[in-house]
Every structure is written in structure tokens, then in C-alpha cells.
Amino acid sequence: MAAGVTTKVALAGFRRMLGADAVLTDPEVTAPYLTDHRKLYEGTALAVLRPGSVGEVSELLAFCNGTGIGVVPQGGNTGYCGGATPDDSGRQVVLSLARLARLRRIDAANYSMVAEAGCILANLQREAEAADRFFPLSLGSEGSCQIGGNLSTNAGGLNVLRYGMTRELVLGLEVVLADGRVLSTLGELRKDNTGYDLKSLFIGAEGTLGVITAASLKLLPRPRAIATAFVAVRGVAAAVDLLGLLREASGDRVSSFELIPHVAVDLTIRHVPGIAQPLAGEYPWYVLCELSSARTADALDGMLEDALRDAMDGGLLDDAALAQNERQRAAFWRLRESIPEAQRIEGPSLKHDVALPIGKLPRFVEEAAAWIAAHVPDAVLVAYGHVGDGNLHFNVNARAGADPLRFVARADEVQRVVHDLVASFGGSVSAEHGIGRLKVDELARYAPPVELELMRAVKRAFDPNGIMNPGKVLKTQ
Fold first, then answer.
1. What one-character-per-residue DSSP string does 203-232 give?
2. What are the CA-CA distances from residue 219 to residues 127, 157, 341, 396 (Å)?
3. Which of 372, 383, 378 has the alpha carbon at shortest distance from 407?
4. Nearest to residue 455, comparing CAs of 86, 137, 201, 148?
5. Which of 182, 189, 284, 449 is the most buried (most CB within 10 A)?
6. Is 385 helix (H, G, I), strand (E, B) or coil?
């Protein structure tokens, strides 16, 4: 903080701007805001601030910019990389967007809606459905994550293959800059070539350039035909070949294509009540795939069944179960979405959120798995994810009976081998979870120097005093 700005002065200023009830300082109340979702980071803060309007966010940032107080924007606090957690200096505030939760408007004719940053993702999905439209962003945390956080991390999720990352679903943004000025590009145009596309700078910036307070989002026709199958494939290469076959056979109607190893199925069955084995036999690898169409006339079940029969004749798979109703479809998806929970219950896990060119996934998994087996004998590989877009959650779990402290102590060594291998295949060490605090050094290691230089120049231009989410994403020195 700037000289002469005491904690008492800062708190008095916050209470004047927001009212006492929106300035949280009680340790029992603030504790959930000060620890990240994975319990990797725990910080302290001058206060947790809960503004209720864009005007209040603007006033707060102007005050913090003038007094040198760091601002850590926070949505649903469901991130995996510590991007919404303050440091332990006590000189930062957490800026919660939870009260900015209005759906400002929905325009079915324009296939768009304008939502404030604190809107829960699942609520936006329901609002779109009520208007006979579809908002395709779908995550395991959609019942608690907020759209502002999804935008700030450029979240991916289950439907990237068909609909793209969050960035592809944005028409415009409202952002409060570090000095309190409000930038509004909330227009709902599909075509606008008037200068630089400023909104794109804030998507994926994790609050380091400004605070997203609202967004204009694309909607799509609501799916009216869906076909889902749980398939036993003969390996990762067979899964990649099956993806290509399904895309061609369905006229590119594949909306989800999830790779799941047997060990992940076993973990969910053992640790999550109500999960059952989808197939009669046990196989090393599975795929959960889904076709969708806005046309009720599209006979997707028959299309999927025919394609899977061809795949079986071609030696790509051993068994498959097509969902016969919504209950069975929900059961398939519950298994997939319960994998992270089952891993947490099982014990320590070294997580790697990586992306590779789809055609290189089989060789990457083969080489990385061989290294894990040879060098980390107390580990079990749990590699799963959105293989339809090349995103693999390459997680390494501790075996039952392993010393958890000894296992976790190898995290840096394992990460370096995995990330170096990813880089050698032309991949990314952050596919959909962002950089946050966790991967600042990784970005500095793998990003080209010119890219880092330009990022720092953008950071200086938007946040010259360095108050926006300090220590996240980018090393500024």
C-alpha cells in the first residue's frame, strides 16, 4: 500500500463506498475466500469486498489504484491454479463478483444474452433453455462457477469440440479497468471490424488486466436430438481413429468425445455412490461420445449405432452401450464428471492439464506412461479428458499404501518430465485451467521470449501500477 494508507484508512474507504455489510473482515466469514479450490494456496487479505454494481467496482478500483492496494478478482472460486487467491502479504483485497448476478437481457431472435459476471453458469444454461435456446459452455463445476471466472480463464469443458472455448461464445464485454474507467463493448454484433478486438485481451487474462463485470454471450439452437454411447476402445490410437470416423459419419455432429481409462471407472465405482459399470466386461480404455442436432428429425441413435458397428468391424472397439433414455445418459455423464471427486477421495494426485495435436495423443500417452511406470513405481496413471479437442488431464495418483509426503515431494520432477514431453510434441502445458499462481514459472519457461515481451507490454499499458491480481499469470520483471 502507498505510504500513509493504513488498514484503518483503507477499510473506512471501502465501507464508505460499499456499506459495512459488503466489507467482510471476520476471519470465519472470509476464510472460504482465502483458500483455493484445491487447497494449494491460502492467503490473507485486508478485506473481502462484495460490490453490488458496476459503479461500485469502478469506485473501488480507482481507490485501490491510487492507494497501491492489490485487487484479486474472484468468481465461484472453483479454479485449479490458484488464480483467485490472495498472497499472504495482507496488502490485497479479494473482490468478489457474486452480487453482480443479474441476467440483464436475453434476445432469442438475436441468439444472445447479456449476463453479469456473478451469474452461475448452470443458471445461464437454464435461462437459455427457457428461451428455447442453448448456451453450450458445460463444466463439472457449472453449479457453482460464475461466468466471469469462466471468461477470465477462457474455460473449456465438455463441448469444446463442437462449440469452441469460452472465447468463441463472446460477442462483447463490460470491463472495469485498473484506474476505474469502464470499457463497454457489450454490443451484440456478429460482425464488427472497427479497430482492435480489445475484448479478447481480457478473456483468459485471469483478472490481471481488469475486472470483467458483464458479457454479451452467443446462444445457439437448442439440441432436440441427442445420441450418447459408452464405448470400450482398444487403445488411445483407436479412440483417435473412432473420433475421425464419427465426425465423418455424423456430418460433424459430434459434440463431446471423452477418453476414460479403466482405472478412472474403477475409482468412481469404488468411491462415488450410485456409479455402476456401464459395460458387462472390463476394458483398458473407454470413450464417452455424444452426437447432437437441433433437428428432431435427425435419427442420431441409428447414425451412432451404425458408425459404432463399422468401428467394431474395423477393430477399433470391443463393446458399446447406447443410452436408451435420459436416465441412462445421465448415468454415463455422472461417471465421467465424478472422476475428479473420486481422485480426491483416493488420495494425493499430481495433476497436469495439457493439450496436444490430436494425432499425437497416442504416442504422448505411450511415452509418458512408460516414464511414469519406470520412475514413479508408487503411482497410478489416470489420464482422461476431452480428447476430441486434444485436452488431456494427465494425472498421477498415489498407489494405495504409498507415503503421501514422499509422493507429493516428487511433484516438480514429474511435472518437468511431463511438460517437457508435451512441449516436444508441440503441445501446451495449460489447456483449460489457466496459469494462475501455479504455472507462472511454466509460462515463463515455455512461452517464446517475444510472446512474453508483448504480454508484459500489454500488462504495463492496462495496469501500470500493478494492482490487478498481482503475482498471477505473468512474471513482470
1. TTSTTSSEEEEEEEEE-EEPP-EEEEEEEE
2. 11, 17, 30, 37
3. 378
4. 201
5. 182
6. strand
**CA distances for 208 relative to 21, 153, 435, 436, angstroms:** 27, 11, 11, 10
- Strand 47-49 to strand 92-96: parallel, antiparallel, or no bridges (unpaired)? parallel
Grid cell 481413429 — which residue? 241
Q: What are phi and psi of 55, to 5 degrees?
A: -60, -40
Among the listed residues 38, 33, 35, 32, the one whose alpha carbon sits nearest the alpha carbon of residue 433? 38
For residues 113 and 107, is the Cβ–Cβ distance under 8 A?
yes
pLDDT tens, per residue, the chain with 477 residues: 776 688 999 999 999 999 999 999 999 999 999 999 989 999 999 999 999 999 999 999 999 999 999 999 999 999 999 999 999 999 999 999 999 999 999 999 999 999 999 999 999 999 999 999 999 999 989 999 999 999 999 999 889 989 999 999 999 999 999 999 999 999 888 888 888 999 999 999 999 999 999 999 999 999 999 999 999 999 999 999 999 999 999 999 999 999 999 999 999 999 999 999 999 999 999 999 999 999 887 799 999 999 999 999 999 999 999 999 999 999 999 999 999 999 999 999 999 999 999 999 999 999 999 999 999 999 999 999 998 899 999 999 999 889 999 999 999 999 999 999 999 999 999 988 899 999 999 999 999 999 999 999 999 999 999 999 999 999 875
Instruction: Give SS3 for 427.
Output: coil
Place of cell 470413450: 287
Sign of the dihedral through C-alpha 436, 441, 445, 451: positive
Q: 125: which residues sit within 8 A by CB, 6+ positions away?
A: 135, 137, 138, 142
Indicate the burial class of 20 (C-beta count within 10 angstroms; 0-12, 13-18, 19 or more): exposed
